[in-house]
Design a protein that fits this description.
- The protein is built from 7 helices and 2 strands.
- By secondary structure, it is an all-alpha fold.
- A two-stranded antiparallel sheet has the order 1-2.
- Helix 4 packs antiparallel against helix 6.
- The radius of gyration is 19 Å and the shape is globular.
């Protein structure tokens, strides 16, 4: 029950964040199509302020829920780039980590496994055999690590350089 409530709060946080970003994008499109920039900026600021306030409130609720969880208290709290919502997502969507016999099984559940040299991808007409929320959360965590500029960013840059040396051809996507 606690994990379901935490999951609900994390999903609500990301829903609010997405809505705030979409609203800002809509205002930008209206300005580009000839709308009154000053008036639209005021409207955008009004919407942004209210949605950001609710985001902050939900984030605080997530933080209060995970505060005493051992994964947060003993490890994630100190990881640069992992805030309460990323941690709350990991905690709520993974659940009991002991149910995974291997790290590979956890990676597969997160949609990060490689099979026959290919990363897991959805196939038309088939249900994903991983948790799409965790796959998205892993991407959010990775981009957060790169943005923070310390800690895991160095590891990312080293790995990127090593990969580019091993595979100098451009990526196919």
């Amino acid at each position: 029950q606690e994990l379901a409530e935490l999951r609900f709060l994390v999903e609500t946080f990301y829903d609010l964040q997405k809505l705030r970003i979409e609203a800002g994008n809509r205002v930008g499109a209206l300005v580009r199509s000839g709308g009154d920039a000053d008036r639209l900026k005021q409207l955008s600021d009004w919407v942004d302020e209210r949605l950001a306030k609710h985001e902050g409130e939900v984030k605080l609720m997530v933080q209060n829920r995970i505060r005493k969880h051992p994964l947060w208290a003993e490890w994630l709290k100190g990881v640069k780039g992992v805030g309460p919502c990323i941690a709350g997502g990991l905690i709520s969507w993974i659940g009991d980590i002991g149910r995974f016999e291997t790290v590979s099984a956890l990676w597969s559940y997160c949609g990060l496994a490689v099979h026959d040299g290919e990363i897991q991808k959805r196939k038309k007409g088939e249900k994903a055999n991983w948790n799409p929320n965790l796959k998205l959360l892993a991407w959010k965590a990775a981009t957060s690590f790169v943005r923070v500029g310390k800690g895991y960013r160095e590891l990312y840059l080293q790995s990127k350089e090593k990969y580019q040396q091993a595979h100098p051809e451009p990526m196919p996507y």
